[in-house]
Amino acid sequence: MLKFTIGQLKKSAYNKPFAFSGEVDVSELEKMNNDIREIKPVQVSGDCTIQGDQFIFTFKVTGEMILPCARTLVDVVYPFEIKTTEIFSSSSYYTEEETDTEIHPIDGEVLDLTPYIKENILLEVPFRVYSEEAKDLPDQKGNGWEVVSEEKTEKTIDPRFKKLESLFKDNDQEK
């Protein structure tokens, strides 16, 4: 876990950026309602600067997650690298405007980056991934269904519109 006390940050980041790095266990994401089947601890590195009563954390999160293939449901290793900036405020005068600008209030004397790391990882999960085997699969057919590639989709004409094609041919001959 990456936890920092406000006193430690004020002392360390007073004149220069405070650099930090570490490994964070985010395996809790596997239990949530998402496609992540497995995720190993992620590497986090970055720095913190202070501007007035704001603590600005700029950091990079790298790791790998295992997701299901969209076609075959086999495990697909998906490496990721996230670069992000999170701003925290220790001001007791926390306004509605700051809520809209994504400035997080600091409760107490300890700032924990773990929830924000998890949030950024969840935002990074792709809509779908494909395994190498799924990319090489031939088009498949079943009773009333068919899996087609994008190239084949562009070349085929819906049979319901086949009769309309003859209207266009007649129109071209008149010109």
Automatic annotation (TrEMBL):
It comes from the Bacteria. Pfam families: YceD. InterPro entries: YceD. This is DUF177 domain-containing protein. It comes from Ornithinibacillus halophilus.
